[in-house]
From TrEMBL:
Protein name according to UniProt: Signal recognition particle receptor FtsY
Function: Involved in targeting and insertion of nascent membrane proteins into the cytoplasmic membrane. Acts as a receptor for the complex formed by the signal recognition particle (SRP) and the ribosome-nascent chain (RNC).
GO CC annotation, single: plasma membrane
InterPro entries attached to this UniProt entry: AAA+_ATPase (IPR003593), P-loop_NTPase (IPR027417), Signal_recog_particl_SRP54_hlx (IPR013822), SR_rcpt_FtsY (IPR004390), SRP/SRP_N (IPR036225), SRP54_GTPase_dom (IPR000897), SRP54_N_sf (IPR042101)
Pfam families hit by this protein: SRP54, SRP54_N
EC number: 3.6.5.4
PROSITE patterns (alphabetical): SRP54
Family (UniProt): Belongs to the GTP-binding SRP family. FtsY subfamily.
Localization annotation: Cell membrane; Cytoplasm
Main location class: membrane
């Protein structure tokens, strides 16, 4: 009997201890939820929704607002990332003015300061010449501008600052040459056999000038203009280049054709990209290349092979040479080599922000005899603008 009572007391104590433990755990879990812990609350404990959203209503297993709204959104974001809407292209070059102003003394401001002096002496003309040379305009074009200005100042007797500005503007505009065709060939067209083929843009240039970045930005320009695009990652030399290109493309829904193997044959990747673009009926295929300039023969071989295999599928409509505006005369030497081996049809001048050497536009056009078609104005995704001579000269001259 005594034993029986002892067992009853032990049983009661055990029940009390277990009940206490369970109570503590429930309390702790309630406190965690009250503190906004990320764990999803049990459905029954979720607060009732005052106005359930339609997604809540269509989500059968998620009647509580907190979960119904948050969880499907997160899942959707993981499955289908939101595509970005690139900025409209028109008017982008107007940014150049602000960027040049931040990059130090703009060319135009220094030229205007000299030209506005009362009586221009030989020293003033020398200073003007030096300013143009420092801005990489090049010796030939600088001589032409100074000569033309000297004549007009003498003949027209220009003094007032607004007239001086207008004079300088018209001379700079003439030297940049508004008559050149700067349009990009990016439309489908009938191929040699009469069937429609995409425009093919091959992008060449030394590494580090901004080729891959420019192609990413160009894809956005094309998407903004409702063109369908395929990118070809034929820069198989730098392992990360294909990833970089793919990331750019995926942000605007543009596919990238690439090889899984580092160091794969660039011509084969270029060919696959154009073939895919053709099969999918897209408007334009843009092909990235490696920018090794170890020697001219090697470069010629590689670009020659890429060109040959691409043209089996569709003719090349543009060969864009990407040049870094901050490299000055070095850039001109590169331009010369690529001009000889790659049949360049247009120039993309990158990093024009942050340099007072805007004159390189003139020098490089003269050097290659092909127009600057696009300019890079920064590292932002939409910092690529079609080149427009008037907007460019206005940017150089500032306010
Ligand atoms: N400020 C500025 N930076 C730029 C511009 N264009 C490109 N860049 C930067 O230049 C650097 C090199 O760009 P990439 O596109 O990787 O150069 P790449 O020519 O493809 O180089 P490789 O793949 O090695 O041949 C990156 O940091 C870009 O953000 C521009 O217009 N302005």
């Amino acid at each position: 009997m005594k034993d029986l009572w002892l067992w009853i007391v032990i049983a009661v104590v055990l029940v009390a201890v277990v009940a206490g433990l369970v109570g503590n755990r429930v309390g702790a879990s309630r406190r965690r939820r009250a503190g906004g812990a990320p764990a999803a609350p049990p459905v029954a404990e979720a607060p009732p929704s005052p106005e359930p959203s339609s997604s809540t209503a269509t989500a059968p297993e998620a009647p509580a607002v907190g979960r119904a709204v948050a969880e499907p959104d997160v899942a959707e974001a993981e499955v289908a990332p939101q595509l970005e809407r690139p900025e409209p292209v028109a008017g982008r070059l107007a940014r150049l003015r602000g960027r040049l102003a931040r990059s130090g003394s703009p060319l135009g401001a220094r030229l205007l300061a000299v030209l506005s002096r009362d009586h221009l002496t030989d020293d003033d003309w020398d200073e003007l010449e030096e300013t143009l040379l420092l801005a990489d305009v090049g010796a030939g074009p600088t001589g032409e501008i100074v000569e033309a200005l000297r004549t007009r100042v003498r003949v027209e007797g220009v003094k007032d600052p607004a007239a001086v500005r207008e004079l300088l503007r018209s001379e700079l505009l003439a030297i940049v040459d508004p008559t050149l065709d700067r349009s990009l060939s990016t439309e489908r067209h009938p191929g040699p056999d009469g069937s429609g083929v995409p425009a093919v843009v091959l992008v060449v240039g030394v590494n580090g000038t901004g080729k891959t970045t420019t192609i990413g930005k160009l894809a956005r320009v094309l998407v903004a203009e409702d063109r369908s695009v395929v990118l070809g990652a034929a820069d198989t030399f730098r392992a990360a280049a294909a990833d970089q290109l793919e990331t750019w493309g995926s942000r605007v829904g543009v596919p990238t054709v690439r090889s899984d193997r580092d160091g794969a044959d660039p011509a084969a990747v270029a060919f696959d990209a154009v073939r895919q673009g053709r099969a999918e009926g897209v408007d334009v295929v843009v092909v990235d290349t490696a920018g090794r300039l170890q020697n001219k023969a090697g470069l010629m071989d590689e670009l020659g092979k890429i060109t040959r295999v691409i043209t089996k599928e569709a003719p090349l409509t543009e060969v864009l040479l990407v040049l870094d505006a901050t490299t000055g005369q070095n850039g001109l030497t590169q331009a010369r080599v690529f001009g000889e081996v790659a049949g360049v049809t247009g120039i993309v001048l990158t990093k024009l922000d942050g340099t007072a050497r805007g004159g390189i536009v003139v020098a490089v056009q003269r050097e290659l005899g092909v127009p600057v078609k696009l300019v890079g104005l920064g590292e932002g995704p939409d910092d690529l603008a079609p080149f427009d001579p008037e907007a460019f000269v206005d940017g150089l001259l500032g306010d």
